[in-house]
Amino acid sequence: MLIVSAPSGSGKSTxxxxxxxxxxxxxxYFSISCTSRAPRGTERNGVEYFFLTPEAxxxxxxxxxxxxxxxxxxNRFYGTLKQQVENQREAGQNVVFDVDVKGGVxxxxxxxxxxxxxxxxxxxxxxxxxxxxxxxxxxxxxIAERLAKAEYEMTFAPLFDHVIVNDDxxxxxxxxxxxxxxxxx
Length: 185
Fold this sequence. Notes:
Layout: E1 2-5, H1 12-22, E2 28-30, E3 33-35, E4 49-51, H2 54-62, E5 66-73, E6 76-81, H3 82-90, E7 94-98, H4 101-111, E8 116-121, H5 125-135, H6 140-153, E9 162-165, H7 169-184
Parallel strand pairs: 1-7, 1-8, 2-7, 3-4, 8-9
Antiparallel strand pairs: 3-6, 5-6
Helix pairs in contact: 1-7, 5-6
């Protein structure tokens, strides 16, 4: 299993998507997480995420259905369903978790040496601001909230097996590929 965490805008999704697209020999498949936020852009239920209402998310928490979950922002939950992961493992897939830092730490604790945890770090908070503004998907208030969260999330980096600083995307991709290949053997 591969756990990848990073502050929003660090390049995590770009790197993971590249790895999965360009290196099918690694047999990497996303664990589809749940979220209580609304879909963005072309996101579809059951593809990028399972979209739940906050109430439905809380019910699944009460039913102990999550491997990990986090209330990342007020009333905005993200989580990984245990059954989804087990189904994928039984199918022989190398499961990729694209999760927030607390979720990444929790999954690593749960699976131990069966999982490799990677933290993708931006070169600086200022560069992160530039990337988030460049996306054009968030309000200035949302960007400020994400930047404050990013500074906090970066304190979790030492809890991961490897930290990859994404100051040059091609270098970060190659470094990630090598670490994953070494882990998978």
